[in-house]
Amino acid sequence: MTLLPLVFICPLVGALLLAFLRGMPQRLAALIGVGSIALSALSVAVIAVTYLGGDHTPVTVTLWQWISVGDFTPRFSLYVDGLTITMLGVITGVGFLIHLFASWYMTEDLKDATGYLYTRFFAYMNLFVFSMLLLVLADNLMLLYLGWEGVGLCSYLLIGYYYRDLDNARAAFKAFIVTRVGDVFLAIGMFILYARFQTLDIQTLLALAPEAWSKGDMMAELAALMLLGGAVGKSAQLPLQTWLADAMAGPTPVSALIHAATMVTAGVYLIARTHVIFELAPMTLGLVGIVGALTLLIAGLSALAQTDIKRVLAYSTMSQIGYMFLALGVQAWDAAIFHLMIHAFFKALLFLTSGSVIIACHHEQNMFRMGGLRKPLKLAYACFLVGGSALAALPLVTAGFYSKDEILWLSFASGHEVLWAFGLMGAFLTSVYTFRMIFIVFHGEEKTRAHAPHGLAHHLPLVVLLVLSTFIGAFIHPPLAGVLPASPEGDAEGLQLVLEVVSSIVAILGLGIAAALFLGRRRLVSALVKTDIGRTGWHFLHNAFAFDQLYNMLFVKPFLAIAWLHRVDWINALVNIWPWLAKQAHRGLSASQTGRIRWYAGSITAGATIMLALLVLG
Amino acid sequence: MILPLLILIPFIGGFLCWQTERFGVKPPRVIALITMLLELGIALGLWWHGEYQLDGVIGDTPNWVLEFHAPWIDRFGISFHLALDGLSLIMIMLTGFLGVLAVTCSWAEITRRVGFFHLNLLWIIGAVVGIFLSVDLFLFFFFWEMMLVPMYFLIALWGHSGSKGNSRVRAAMKFFIYTQASGLLMLVSILGLVFMHYLQTDVFTFDYAALKDTTLSEPAAMLLMLGFFIAFAVKLPVVPLHGWLPDAHAQAPTAGSVDLAGILLKTAAYGMLRFLMPMFPEAAMQFAPIAMGLGLVGIFYGAAMAFSQTDIKRLIACSSISHMGFVLIGIFSNSLLALQGVIALMVAHAFSSAGLFIISGQLYERLHTRDMREMGGLFGKLGALPGFALVFVMATLGMPGTGNFIGEFLILFGAFEVEPWVVVVASIGLVLAAIYSLILMQRVYFGAAKSEATYRGLDTREYLMLLLLFVLTVVVGFFPQLLLGVTEHAMSEIQTWVATATTPLSSTL
Q1: Which one of A70, A493, B164, B308 is separated from A510 by 20 to 30 angstroms, measured CA to CA?
Q2: Cis ω before B240 (30° cut-off from 0)
Q3: Are strands B78-84 and B66-73 parallel, antiparallel or unpaired?
Q4: Where are the alpha helices (DSSP H) in A305-364?
Q5: Which ipTM value was assigned to this complex?
């Protein structure tokens, strides 16, 4: 465990080197950027082996006393258990593959966008990995919050990487602000927990909470609700989901790393990490499941009506995280984490491949201007088929089948039939939009000349992720025993088989419908979109249920109006009455100083008369 | 003897700068730099050798680490009484450091009357150090008034003239009148307190430790407390008494802005902590809900104004108003956690706002404008400058890893146990801070470049200044104990005095 600090120090050193030595050649920058993550991944591997080889006892490594004021004593210390190991593996493993791919992707991408610094990209990426690692390693909420906001910062910087286009800057701005709203909820949650327990140490909190709060205690509900607020912001769930689709403005490896594999799953991690508090708050826990179910459906429907390949994947990410939330809501803790891991594999694969396709098609992101790519881009086609099948959870051969069906089965077994029904509908939608995307991009007539990419940095990450997205990936089971409580067990084994068959049929049905609609001439779809209802519906879905427009009206416009009113400092203007009064008085008095004897004599007489009159009368 | 030396050094240095002007522009600059380095060095020496981690609070007598006492006007019990504890030491170190920065950032900016400029600059520093050291109320008032005059000249003579009749002279005058008028109220309060004490004991004294124990009737205490509060509230500033601040900042030269935001505002918070709370604990605690309310108003009003500014320096100035709202809430919550947060936030805000003001100055030297509508797309130009700007903008919005986060969160954690709703509302300020900070970033650095002009990058002097501020910001973020350990004793003294005075039961138990 002495290697533990190395895990996050490597990316930090990488980030600092890249940030301060901006003029270094591209090859060196790539070496530092990718190498630091490789070293970090190696340390994680060693730690995982020692941890799994030992007796699975959690380890705490304290580096220094961060703050110490009275009872407020958060330390800078790291905590490792099975959940941490799983997250570390995903972050550094998948992270390394994505960094490797990015060294190819950014070289290609910057050929057409000159003037952007290659080092800056990798500095941000390394800083991101550093923050994300601190987030999952933190043994107290204060340190977790450091990582939590840190990943938000890097997400902001990377979405706005191509800063010369103001649209990118705006997307970055939106992502930061919306997630910060969530962060404020998390902060308030921390305030509540500290005020009650006088500690922010997560394990101590989890031990103290059941003693202080009975199940359903209002304070427990409130604390859990605030934590949930933080989680929905980071994980792009209802009602703070609006930023994720716009976040696709960033370079594609960023979308793969931050907006699919790691950062957006931080909310799932947070809830799993603080599961004891959620168990004490049944109402909030129920809400977690409902949020997940609604998000997965809304996002799935929205994905149906997208034209940009990355936006399809963005909505599908929201939808898949919705599954994880649903799993958390029915207390299927390890199913949620299992799906988190598998999702990281296949969604990273899909994003990286889409990046490869986008480069091959000369920065084209509109699916309808691609088409017929299966011949020129064979590897990409294979990756999309495997990744897409995993996403759609096609039975037996894909990793997604095992993780997603566990969620569906456990939600049914724990008596949440409605949530299960939502999940099943979502599974159908997933299958439809996934294969719609694949058919539009890779089948049909060729609309653009694509150049197949080459190079080890391009092929290796795709092939490794492709293998992990098949049933082989499902053999990796997160070592969660003892960390998270066991999932509720259903009694009927036969029922599980029935449900698995049902969801398999649903997935294949979705595939069939996608094939019927989007293979061939797509007559039915074009006819449908031409009708009034069809067009309105399409626009509604395309805009993801018009949440952006709603929030614009509810929050952005009023804020701008208030700010517009404050372009003048009203209070200052009011205070300025005093100098104005002084000036008027000054003017009045100077006006009386005319310098004419007659005027003075007259006023003296008048004054004297008035005084005398007052004296006489008084 | 070291304490009066701390005050004298800047005054003597300033005088020398003025006199050596006749030999060219270089000697005053070098002398000013040496003076400030000496000042900072002495403060660091005191920090290194002093013992500030004292145990426990002994009764209600202040526990000084160093003291200097010399008679001055015996007839009225006025003496030249200086004392140092952890709180004053931190503030003096900060003053010394920002003094060095103020001198170095004016190196190329100030070319007219260089000697006289440095005289004013150093005399401000001297007066501020005097404020942080005096424990005689008359002496305190003396230095409080004294820092205004050189600041007035700094803005009026070397400032920038803005648009719409916002001339530098007008801004300087506004600054002077605001602070002078409120200072008068403080003088009345000080005299009132001294007379009350005289009536009770037949002794004239302006000494802090003696006056602290004066028994006051409730309305008298409230009135006297308000006199102090208004004086400090103008300086902090607290909305609605903030009117001078955006103008003064916008029109002041860079060094003036750095000093204003970095240390002049902090003298107000220091005054509240050192004098207002311990001398009038009951009245202050009665007034606390209103003060916290004003803090909230400041957070939101400052944020809303910051968002709608077009002048980059006015934006930063308004953001200071917003941050000082947190400071006010922290002070009046009287929780040790929040008070320590106030210290961290004051120091961190000094670093981050100094960084932003220095960057604005550097932008002005290159673009000759402070209007953000004429900027845009500067990222990727100007060398390392946008990178540093990003760091300080992130510090302003309270990004964890910077000292500002430590300060804000300690205040919020501490105040939450006292007034949860105030904290919940104040937390919304965190989102607003993100909005106006990122808007600054977006307007100035992102988007397409407004012109094809190329600008020179940072030279070594400019780079080192910003690098130093960057390192300090991050050090406070990751190792705040370096700071909090020094002030812990002084803060728990204040907190205990106020707490025991307002809950009489606990002292009799």
Answers
A1: A493
A2: yes
A3: antiparallel
A4: 309-329, 333-360
A5: 0.92
Of all residues in chain A, what percent are helix, strand and coil, respectively (each to 5)?
A: 75, 5, 20
Tell me what percent of chain B is helix, strand and coil, each rounded to the nearest 5.
75, 5, 20
Cβ-defined contact of A563 to B481 (cutoff 8 Å): no
Residues within 8 A of A (CB atoms), B 437-466 only: 438-439, 442, 445-449
Angle at B405 between CA B401 and CA B411, to 5 degrees: 150
Which residues lie below 8 Å from residue A564, measured CB to CB, with a gap of 6+? B308
- Chain B: closest CA distance from residue A120 (Å): 10
Q: Distance between CA A148 and CA A264 in Å, rounded?
A: 11
The pLDDT of residue A479? 83
Sequence-separated (6 or more) residues with CB below 8 Å from residue B74: none
CA atoms of A406 and A412, how far apart (whole Å): 10
Q: Which two structure tokens, joined as six digits, stand for A189?
A: 């949650």
B336/A117 CB distance under 8 A: no
Q: How far is CA B95 from CA A33, B40, B98, B132, in A?
A: 40, 8, 5, 10
Q: Check: CB of residue A424 under 8 Å from CB of residue A347.
A: no
Token duo for residue A379: 């590897």
**CB within 8 Å of chain A, chain B residues 358-377:** 377
Q: Do B445 and A163 touch (CB under 8 A)?
A: yes
Distance CA A405, CA A423 (A): 10
Distance of CA A386 to the CA centre of its chain: 24
- Reported confidence tier of residue B392, pLDDT bands at 50, 70, 90: very high
Report the candidate in B334, B135, B320 with the shortest Cα–Cα distance to residue B246. Answer: B320
CA B352/CA B88 separation, integer angstroms = 21
Residue B426: predicted pLDDT: 93
Residue A367 half-sphere exposure toward CB, CA atoms < 13 A: 25
Q: From CA B389, how far away is CA B396, in angstroms rounded? A: 10
Residue A58 and residue A80: Cα distance in Å, rounded?
A: 5
3-state secondary structure B415-440: HHCCCHHHHHHHHHHHHHHHHHHHHH
User: Six-digit token pair at A134?
Assistant: 């601190």
DSSP run (H or E) holding B104: helix B86-105
B446·A163 Cβ contact <8 A: yes
Rounded CA separation B265/B342 (Å): 13
Q: Does the pTM exceed 0.95?
A: no
Looking at B134-217, list the stretches that DSSP marks H as alpha helix, in order from N- to C-terminal side.
Answer: 137-146, 148-158, 168-201, 208-212
The torsion region of residue B371 among left (phi > 0), alpha (psi -120 to 50) and beta comes to: beta
Query: If we measure between CA atoms, which residue out of B258, B46, B252 comes closest to residue B162?
Result: B252
DSSP A488: P
Q: How far apart are CA A599 and CA B490, in angstroms?
A: 67
Q: What are the structure tokens assigned to A164, written together?
A: 């010369």
Identify the band that residue A266 occupies on the pLDDT scale cut at 50, 70 and 90. very high
Portion 323-342 of B in contact with A at CB < 8 A? 336-337, 340
pLDDT at A441 over 60: yes
**Rounded CA separation A75/A179 (Å):** 26
The reply to whether omega before B10 is within 30° of 0 (cis) is no
User: Residue B278, SS3?
Assistant: helix
- H/E segment holding residue B70: strand B66-73
| B468 in contact with chain A, both atoms CB, cutoff 8 A | no
Contact with chain A for residue B259, Cβ under 8 A: no
pLDDT above 90: percentage of residues in chain B: 48
Contact between B469 and B256 (Cβ < 8 Å): no
